[in-house]
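Our platform keeps sequence and structure together, in a single record for each protein. Nothing more is needed to write down the fold, since each code stands for a local backbone conformation. An entry from our holdings is shown next, in its original layout:
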Amino acid sequence: MPDPRGQASATLDPVEIERFARLSSAWWDPNGDFSTLHQIGPARMGFLRARLSAHFRGGDRGELRPLEGLTILDVGCGGGLVCEPLARLGATVTGIDPAAENVEAARQHASAQGLAITYRAVRAEDLAAEGRTFDAVTCLEVVEHVPDVGAFLGLMGTLVRPGGLLLLSTLNRTMKAYLLVIVGAEYVLRWLPVGTHQWERFVTPDELAGHLRAAGLQPPVLQGLVFNPLSGAWSLSDSDTDVNYFAASAKPG
């Protein structure tokens, strides 16, 4: 199979892929380069569970496996930090990443946990060419790393079945986000490796909504992700999308 990293395109930046591939051994280290992803894990899974349950089940009834019977694709799965909790909630999960190193790390960890997750080192374009669709597609902390957001979200829309749901998280292009994410988190606090983000690739909620509309998806439900420096905890916000935010957009059935 050709290297799924491929050449630079509207939806894939090989430099970004190589950066994360070099860190493939660190995905499951809660104190390593991806420690922030571990810290925000409960909040982002809270968003995913709530929106998936609301869309497909009419609400969260507190079941142990509320996503039973749903097929979910996680695009840019990395080491599987989102795939594994989705699988534990009952979903049939496929995770894809163009970096084979990340996919291998995800496979090994899932196997050690006894979880049956399908991982593939392919591009989203490859699944679209196969005609694959899923009940839901998740794409978290990926949008801000692609060259052409509109083209990328158009591709994501083709992978969602009619009546399905696209779930995203990304960063707002505000000065507050620049100061907190790039200056603060990368250069001062060193929560993230320097160079992880490019501010010009951050996406405002209005821009995101426009791209989703062009992709044939409905206006998104938005929630922010905020950090409390006093408690050190991350939580969802219905009003503050100035920095990190989530979006859930349905595809008409």
Observations:
- The chain has a mean pLDDT of 92.
- The two ends are 35 Å apart (CA to CA).
- The chain has one domain: 14-250.
